[in-house]
Amino acid sequence: MGFTAVLVLPILVVIAAGVYYLYTEITRLMSKSAVRNKVVVITDAVSGMGKECSRVFHAGGARVILCGKSWEKLEALYDTLNSAADPSVTFTPKLVVLDFSDIDAIPDVTKEILECYGCVDVLISNTSMKVKAPVQNVSLEMDKRIMDTNYFGPITLTKGLLPSMISRRSGQLVLVNSIQGRLGVPFRTAYAASKHAAQAFFDCLRAEVEEFDISVSTISPTFIRSHHQQPEPRNAEKSTWKFFFRKFAHGVHPEEVANEVLRTVNRKKKEVLMANPIPRAALYIRSFLPGLFFAVVAAGVKDVPLVEEDTQ
Ligand SMILES: NC(=O)c1ccc[n+]([C@@H]2O[C@H](COP(=O)([O-])OP(=O)(O)OC[C@H]3O[C@@H](n4cnc5c(N)ncnc54)[C@H](OP(=O)(O)O)[C@@H]3O)[C@@H](O)[C@H]2O)c1
User: Where are the transmembrane segments (predicted)?
Assistant: First the structure.
């Protein structure tokens, strides 16, 4: 019995891995076709994650409207996408300059976005500004800039696009958020507060717009590797342990998050958490054993430099 189990178990594991691989490949291909012809707006299309999202949706045949603060970066992205794509199955991207720190300009930008194709099927709110510093080193001005970029800007654009979605009784709103929208950790006061606010806004909105067939999704990664760090060569992932350790130590690659955004749009998932077991456990501990959570987090506090742009 024991000997048979030793023989059968690896075969079962290999079969299960094969089935899982096939399943993910098929769903990936199906996700691509599901966005074909859809009008997809991506805010901050030029950052690490935004670029990958733009590439994935553009290659999937979506009519992408790429938004970003810098026209030069948008044009560079436009060239990259056009040169890599098959023109027979892709649409030429539209470009729109969007700076969330200028809230008063957002109604005009919304109009410009709607004029591109007359409607928007999917809005992917991806923009964010990060700061990591002790609270006394973050000025109120900085707090406000972060709230504008991470909360007031995205919700103003969402509110601007909603009437058109409601009248068409169709639309998808996707917020790329962060686990810090669910958990407060030291030295991230402004960032975590803005992400909590955005999470709450979209959670409330989900229930309000369901009757109009508008879906709302939030995707919360823990740590996305910066874009210039390329994935390790495939052979480094032959060891399962290395595979998990790599993810744990370095976070997920923007491409993995972009593919998850695509799957989320395709399946209209309401909430996605991209996290390893430790942050997942932290979420449960925060809910059920808050005293323990606060004690562990306080124990981890160390000196950090003055105000700086965060890298994660
Ligand atoms: N990176 C991570 O580890 C991580 C983890 C969890 C969640 N996330 C979430 O994933 C999303 C993408 O993050 P990312 O790390 O790919 O971004 P990123 O590399 O940090 O880039 C931030 C981008 O936001 C732009 N930006 C800043 N202020 C803006 C404003 N006022 N208006 C318009 N654009 C503005 C920046 O443009 P300029 O460079 O021109 O200033 C830059 O392109 C964010 O929502 C983030 O919260 C990231």
Answer: 6-23, 283-301
Same domain, 19 and 105: no
Question: Distance between CA atoms of 145 and 99, rounded to whole angstroms?
Answer: 11
Is 70 in the same domain as 91? yes
The pair of three-digit structure tokens given for residue 11, joined into one six-digit string: 């075969």
Tens digit of each residue's pLDDT (9 = 90 or more) over 12-53? 888 888 887 777 777 666 666 789 999 999 999 999 899 999
Hey, is 175 helix, strand or coil? strand
- Ligand 1 pocket residues where CB is under 6 Å: 44, 46-49, 69-70, 98-101, 126-130, 149, 176, 178, 221, 223-224, 251, 312
Query: 3-state DSSP: the chain helix, strand, coil percent, rounded to 5?
Result: 60, 15, 30
Q: How many A from CA of 50 to the centre of ligand 1?
A: 8
Which residue segment(s) compose the domain that 30 sits in?
Answer: 1-34
Is residue 8 domain-shared with residue 101, that is, in the same domain? no
pLDDT tens digits, 154-209: 999 999 999 999 999 999 999 999 999 999 999 999 999 999 999 999 999 999 99
Domain count, the chain: 2
